[in-house]
């Protein structure tokens, strides 16, 4: 048998061989009712015991009509933010420093990220991470270096209810 044939047999892709199954059809000990009295095998006794021990399942689940299920309409839960939003500046050196961005943003602070010193791959990963934060916590993301005459790569993420404008973020980034 070649390597490929044995690999096909191992994964069940080879030809089906039912020859060994036919040998048991004529053996009297495998016929139902052969041997001891029907229903007296150890397997049958344990099956009957297990059935007797099983609790009865209710035949039908009773449910209240849809209109009676909810007495009041609930407002969706929103994260609470502080009344004043602080601006935190972060200059991560690699992707492992993403914690410097995520924790303050999760706590309700705006984060200005200077990604100038990062290589392109890590900068892209940080921006993707920040975009995920903004999506999950309903924040906004701004590219502060777009439109500014600088070679810096600076982004900002701002929580949903923050009272900050782009000029505040530009000043914190040192672009104004």
TrEMBL record:
One of its GO terms (cellular component) is cytoplasm. The keyword Cytoplasm applies. Keywords: Cell cycle, Cell division, Cytoplasm, Septation. InterPro entries: Cell_div_SepF, Cell_div_SepF/SepF-rel, SepF-like_sf. One of its GO terms (biological process) is division septum assembly. Cell division protein that is part of the divisome complex and is recruited early to the Z-ring. Probably stimulates Z-ring formation, perhaps through the cross-linking of FtsZ protofilaments. Its function overlaps with FtsA. Belongs to the SepF family. This is Cell division protein SepF. It comes from Corynebacterium mucifaciens. The gene is sepF.
């Amino acid at each position: 048998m070649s390597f490929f044939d044995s690999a096909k047999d191992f994964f069940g892709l080879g030809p089906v061989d039912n020859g060994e199954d036919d040998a048991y059809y004529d053996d009297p000990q495998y016929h139902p009712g052969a041997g001891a009295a029907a229903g007296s095998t150890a397997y049958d006794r344990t099956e009957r015991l297990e059935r007797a021990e099983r609790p009865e399942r209710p035949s039908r689940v009773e449910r209240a009509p849809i209109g009676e299920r909810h007495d009041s309409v609930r407002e969706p839960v929103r994260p609470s933010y502080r009344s004043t939003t602080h601006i935190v500046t972060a200059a991560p050196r690699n992707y492992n420093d993403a914690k410097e961005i995520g924790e303050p943003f999760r706590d309700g602070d705006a984060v200005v990220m200077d990604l100038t010193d990062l290589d392109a791959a890590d900068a892209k990963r940080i921006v993707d991470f920040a975009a995920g934060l903004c999506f999950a916590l309903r924040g906004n993301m701004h590219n502060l270096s777009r439109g500014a005459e600088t070679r810096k790569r600076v982004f900002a993420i701002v929580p949903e209810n923050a009272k900050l404008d782009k000029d505040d973020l530009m000043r914190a980034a040192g672009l104004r």
